[in-house]
Amino acid sequence: QVQLVESGGGLVQPGGSLRLSCAASGRIFNSYTMGWYRLAPGQQRELVATLTTGGFPNYVDSVKGRFTISRDNAKNTVYLQMNSLKPEDTAVYYCNIWPQVVPWGQGTQVTVSS
C-alpha cells in the first residue's frame, strides 16, 4: 500500500529555516519524480518543487533560491530545505509524485509569523 508521511513543520519567524521530510514507500520513491506541494487557506494546492529520479530539481518561481529539494534513496525519503521563509510560505506542505498523484498523506503545517 502506498504511504506518504510528512514531518518537520512548525512555527518559525520570517527569515528562519525549516527542513521538511517525507518518507515514501519504495514502490513510489524509486520509480517516479517526487514533488512537494503546499495548500494555503483559501487557495488551491500548489506544486512547489520537483525532483526527478535522476536528481534534476525544478522550483516554482516564488521559492527559487530559497528552497532546496533533495532525496535519500537509501531511506526512501525526500526533503525540502526551506530558508529565508516568508509569511506567504505559510501552508500545509505535502509530498507526492508528479505529475500523477497517489493518496495524500496528512501533510505538515508550516507557519511563518513573528
Which percent range fits the helix content?
A: under 10%
User: What is the alpha-carbon Rg in Å?
Assistant: 13 Å
Mean pLDDT: 94
> What is the total tally of β strands?
10
**Main sheet?**
6 strands, mixed
**Count of individual helical segments:** 1
Q: What is the CA–CA distance across the termini?
A: 40 Å
What is the quaternary state of this protein? single chain
| H-E string | EEEHEEEEEEE
Proportion of β residues? over 45%
Q: Structural class of the helices, strands and pairings?
A: mainly beta
Task: Please summarize what this structure is.
By secondary structure, the protein is mainly beta. It has one helix and ten strands; from the N terminus they run βββαβββββββ. The protein starts with a strand and ends with a strand.
Describe this structure in words.
- The strands form two sheets. Strands 2-10-9-4-5-6 form a six-stranded mixed β-sheet, with no helix packed on it. It has a four-stranded antiparallel β-sheet with strand order 1-3-8-7.
- The chain has 114 residues and is mostly beta strands.
- The protein has one helix and ten strands; from the N terminus they run βββαβββββββ.
Describe the protein's topology.
Layout: E1 4-7, E2 10-12, E3 18-24, H1 26-29, E4 33-39, E5 46-51, E6 57-59, E7 67-72, E8 77-82, E9 91-98, E10 108-112
Parallel strand pairs: 2-10
Antiparallel strand pairs: 1-3, 3-8, 4-5, 4-9, 5-6, 7-8, 9-10
